[in-house]
Every structure is written in structure tokens, then in C-alpha cells.
């Protein structure tokens, strides 16, 4: 495998052309109304780019993580927010690597055609936080069904998705020696659940359609189980490198957006008789953040090419996520400072992108846990947890 620079350039151009139909005003309006960018997601689905990671035999584009990353990057670079639909790419590996042939045949072609949406991923719980093995949601097998009880928090797009990947304990924490065991992953068809599944929107700083979900005696068919019962934590971990590379890509897109806007505005806005970017206090932070975004970009492609060659890439994927989210945040602040008071005016889109990119340092995984991975797994220092 391996994508040429020409192929990546073509993807950038094609995705960029789709994004042109969804200008700043579209995203500003969606954000203000806290609406779901339905038309954008429909257009991306119709283009086939949302199904980038679905293999061709199931109707997808059969592309690698490098290409998927470039798709999300271009959306964010254009001023959009790929957070509206990135979950399908984040979760795809779990289904592809560990799902049964029957599950793949049932879901993947319909997802690729845009008839089904897999945009929800339910991991986080109030009492577990970043310590995923502490989740308490229970799935108990009874005959050909599982009965699920528990609570999830911060689950995005549950109301905009048909399918949801759900992580639940099939053996309680206290009953397993190895705490990573006894967790299972299910693909839940939310259109058909029996029992009480209450999805309540949370009032959040970003337009992410994020919810709490209460599950009370929710019945799901046993055929929803992905892979082997009790091995779900391992399956989710398998997907983490892809997720980190994709998050890094989104942050790189944001970083470039901030830098492009700040450079242009700084070169045009005249105060004290000259463009403000003539002043090094304005120009240098923008230049510095550009250097950092480009360095993160190299790490992202290093991680992505290793991932696509099936080589170990945990260190590179984690470092790419860390560097890219820090660089985009640095660029966001440089852009804020360049725009001055206008940065706070919604019509300039800076404050919206500022909020959106800030999320990436914390979710789907916070940067402290990334540093812990580098410190403990790469540098072999003592573990904190
Ligand atoms: C907008 C949004 C959308 C989200 N969407 C989803 C979703 O779709 N599905 C889903 O499952 N989850 C989702 N999340 C949840 C997200 O993944 C978690 O918020 C994130 O992983 C951090 O968990 P927490 O909030 O419980 O933080 P906590 O675990 O409570 O940690 C709080 C802070 O403490 C620090 N910390 C914790 N442990 C350590 C440690 N060992 N070492 C050093 N520092 C530490 C970190 O800085 C961390 O940021 C979303 C969150 C947000 C804000």
C-alpha cells in the first residue's frame, strides 16, 4: 500500500470542492442554531469520501488512514467541522477487524450507500472518566439477547445516528483479575432497541450533539456482539492509533485555517499607519505556530504511513495527536490575538473555530493520557495508573 502525493492532492482538491458549497456562513448558522449539518454530511456521503475506510468489496472507497486523515483535514481547513461525522471513521476499525462477515455484510454496504449512519460511539461514563476499565454499564446475556443497564455521558450524535458502538461490562470489574477483561463491544441498531433508552442532549460549549444516555433493561440481540464476549477493551484499543491519527489530521486542518486567516487579516488591517502584521509581535506568533503545525504534519504522515503498512505506530500516532492539537491551539491563540476585538465577533468565525479546536486536546482522549503513553510505553518510565 502507499498513496502518492498526486493521489493525496486529488483528494484534497475534490474534498475542497465539496466544502466550497458549505462556506463560513453555513457553518456559522449551523453553530448558532446548534443544528446538525445535515446537508454537508449528505453531500460528503454522496461523494463517497465518508466511506473512505470501508473496503471496496462492501461498497466503500477502500482507502487508508492517510487518505481518511486528509479528508477530515480539508473539511476543517475549509472552515467546517468534521466532528459532525468523523465517528464513522473513528469506529470503522473495530467493525472491520473484529466484526463477523455477517455483520459486515449487514451494515457496511448500507453505510457506504448512506442508508445507515454509524456516528455514535458510547464509551464514557460518569464514574469511569478516562479510566475506561471502570465502566459500570452491564450487558447480561439471557438466551439470544443481552439486557443492558447503565449510563453513558458525552455521547455525541446519538440522535443523528442509526447505529451505535456500545462498550459495556459483561463481567463486573470486581470479578476479573485482569481489569481489561470482561468488557464487550456491541453494535446497537438504535432503531430497534426494546426497553428504555433515554437520550438527553447536553448543553455544551461546542455544537457536537452530545448526550447522556440512560439504558434501562434495553434488549439487544446477541448477534450485536462484536467478536468475542469479554474482549472488547482490546478491540477498542486496536482502534486508538487510527483515532489519534485522524484527530491529529483534524487539528492540522484547524491550524492551517487559523494561520491562513491570521496572515491575511494581519496583512490587511492597518493600525498606526501600517498593516499590523508588520509588527513582529503579531507576525512571529503566526510564523511560529505555522512551523509547529508543519512539524506535527510530518509526524502525522509518519504515523499514517506506518499504520497503512500495518507497522507498529503507537508512539508516532500518540505524538502526532499531542503535537497537532497543541499546534492548532497555538495557532488559534495567534489568530485570536491578530484579530483583536474582532475575534470575539461571531461573524469572523474565529471564536467558533477556537472553541472547536480546543476540544481536540481533551476529547476523544486528553493530552495527559497521551503524555502518559509516551512516558510509560515509549520511555519505559514508571506507570501512574
Ligand atoms: C464535546 C465532547 C464530545 C464527546 N463525545 C464523546 C463520544 O461520542 N463518546 C464517548 O464515549 N465520549 C465522548 N466524550 C468524552 C471524552 O472522551 C472524555 O471527556 C475524555 O476522554 C476525558 O474524560 P473525562 O471528561 O471523564 O475526564 P476525566 O477522566 O475526569 O479527567 C479530567 C482531567 O484530569 C486529567 N487526568 C485524568 N486522569 C489522569 C492521569 N492518570 N494522569 C494525568 N492526568 C489525568 C486530564 O487532564 C483530564 O482532562 C466527549 C467529550 C466532549 C467534551
What does the model show?
With 385 residues, this protein is α+β, with helices and mostly antiparallel strands. The protein folds into three domains: 5-113, Butyryl-Coa Dehydrogenase, subunit A, domain 1; 118-230, Beta Barrel (Butyryl-CoA Dehydrogenase, subunit A, domain 2), CATH 2.40.110.10; 234-378, Butyryl-CoA Dehydrogenase, subunit A, domain 3, CATH 1.20.140. The protein has helices at 5-20, 24-33, 38-47, 65-77, 87-98, 101-113, 232-268, 280-308, 314-339, 350-359, 367-378; strands at residues 118-122, 138-142, 145-156, 163-169, 183-189, 194-201, 210-221, 225-226, 270-271, 274-275. The strands form three sheets. A four-stranded mixed beta sheet has the order 1-4-5-8. Helix 4 (65-77) runs parallel beside helix 7 and helix 7 packs parallel to helix 9. The protein is globular and about 80 Å long. Bound molecules: flavin-adenine dinucleotide (FAD).
Helix-strand blueprint:
Blueprint: H1 5-20, H2 24-33, H3 38-47, H4 65-77, H5 87-98, H6 101-113, E1 118-122, E2 138-142, E3 145-156, E4 163-169, E5 183-189, E6 194-201, E7 210-221, E8 225-226, H7 232-268, E9 270-271, E10 274-275, H8 280-308, H9 314-339, H10 350-359, H11 367-378
Parallel strand pairs: 1-4
Antiparallel strand pairs: 2-3, 3-7, 4-5, 5-8, 6-7, 9-10
The structure holds flavin-adenine dinucleotide.
Which ligands does the model contain, each kind named once?
Answer: flavin-adenine dinucleotide
Q: In what order do the strands lie side by side in the largest sheet?
A: 1-4-5-8
- CATH superfamily caption of the largest domain: Butyryl-CoA Dehydrogenase, subunit A, domain 3
The top level CATH class name of the largest domain? Mainly Alpha
Largest sheet: 4 strands, mixed
- What's the CATH architecture of the largest domain? Up-down Bundle
Instruction: Please state the overall shape, judged from the principal axes of the Cα atoms.
Output: globular
Number of strands: 10
